Amino acid sequence: MPAPRLHAALLVLPLALGLAACSGGDGSAGSTDGKGPITVKASDTACDVSRVEAPAGTVEFTVTNSGTKVNEFYVYAEGDRIMGEVENVGPGLSRSFHVELAEPGTYQTACKPGMVGDGIRADFTVTGSSAAARSDDENLAAATTEYQRFVASQSDAFLEETTTFVGLVKAGKVEEAKALYPTARSYWERIEPVAESFGDLDPKIDGREDVLEEGMEFTGYHRLEKDLWQTGLQKDSAAVADQLLADVTELVAQAKAVDLNPLQLANGSKALLDEIATGKITGEEERYSHTDLWDFEANFEGSRAAIQALRPFLQKADPQLVATIDARGKALGDLLETHRDGDGFVLYPELTPTDVKKLTEALDAFAEPVATVSGAVAKG
Questions:
Q1: Residue 10 predicted with pLDDT over 70
Q2: Quick check: 305 and 13 in contact, CB under 8 A?
Q3: How many CB atoms lie within 10 A of CB 100?
């Protein structure tokens, strides 16, 4: 069967079209007087930013999507550290957000039509004076704040997409539900270590039929995956969908209120790579839909988001470790991109044993330095 496609009206952690196309340097994308929100005109092929320079401090962006795919907009610091983002900007919609850019220097803006790859990027310059240097403790505290913002953003998107997915299942729209399934789950997969900390909610939402504890019912996403791809929708599929939405709603409330510490970020980053090694690279996780590479990418993005949040601390503590993580992360990301198919990936059965071996080796190479981050954080 063909790889699932992201439905144009439902699309919700490296490709450039050139600075002129991305930055809107001619001022056509909006106000250029240096005041007010910076407007972003996002489409399926362009990312026109009205101003590509701002003074250090809080910067507001207003993103309007004129394309056919749901878009995302990111502001990155060095090493793809996410400074701010807005998710799920549907066709014809606008969303605004604020981002704190306290340090002068060169950043990057990126639109991601269809949530694909590195997005359409351009440089963005922050001017002014540097803030006072942070201590190690302050860098670690800032890392937890940054990552908790990431968790909150992913949680909101997970609930929004699950709501749509449940509605499609209940309406019997099988093909549309199949198309949305891997995208909706990607938000869960990016924050899975946090989500797993809330007791039975994890197996109720994400439990596989063969690994549930005795006495637990087979519910959640994987039960509906089986219904959609193998057995057909069942008499209780609507009830299972309703329960999934209730469970996700509860989980999101808890995830957004969770109080994390720096060591949890470091351990969570490695845990996400372990998730890939034990479930995604083996094809066990998505055994009915075979959309394992969507999960692979999302786990990888989540792992990198945690490391990115810790980056200012790690650059002071062990710059060589940062360089190694960057290089091996790029190698793994580039390899994963070779299996992209349209807005998604090839299905797992299309991978050859050689493909799986190469992905495993690149994953192991990336996981090795990531595993040492917790030690560096503990010393800090």
A1: no
A2: yes
A3: 15
pTM here? 0.75
Query: Which residue, among 98, 103, 100, 68, has the nearest Cα to 86 in the 3D structure?
Result: 98
Dist CA 373 CA 188 (whole Å): 23
- Give the DSSP H/E element, type plus range, for residue 236: none
Cα–Cα–Cα angle for 326, 42, 95, rounded to 5 degrees: 95
Cβ(4)–Cβ(114) below 8 Å: no
Which ranges in 207-280 belong to alpha helices (H)? 220-226, 237-257, 262-275
CA-CA distance, 115 to 65, in Å (whole number)?
13
Domains of the chain: 19-132 (2.60.40.420), 139-379 (1.20.1420.20)
Which of 5-19, 184-198, 263-277 comes out lowest in average pLDDT? 5-19
Decide: 69 and 44 in contact? Cβ < 8 Å: yes
Q: 3-class DSSP state for residue 252?
A: helix
Residues ≥6 apart with Cβ < 8 Å to 80:
304, 308
Instruction: Report the alpha-carbon distance of residue 195 to residue 251 in Å, rounded.
Output: 7
Q: Which DSSP state fits 69?
A: S
130 vs 187: CA distance, rounded Å: 34
Distance (Å, whole) CA 78 – CA 274: 26
Half-sphere exposure of 11 (CA within 13 A, CB side): 24
The confidence band for 68, taking pLDDT boundaries of 50, 70 and 90, is: very high
> How is residue 310 written in tokens?
């810790």
Quick one: tokens of 224? 């509906």
**DSSP sequence for 123-145:** EEEEESPPPPPPPHHHHHHHHHH
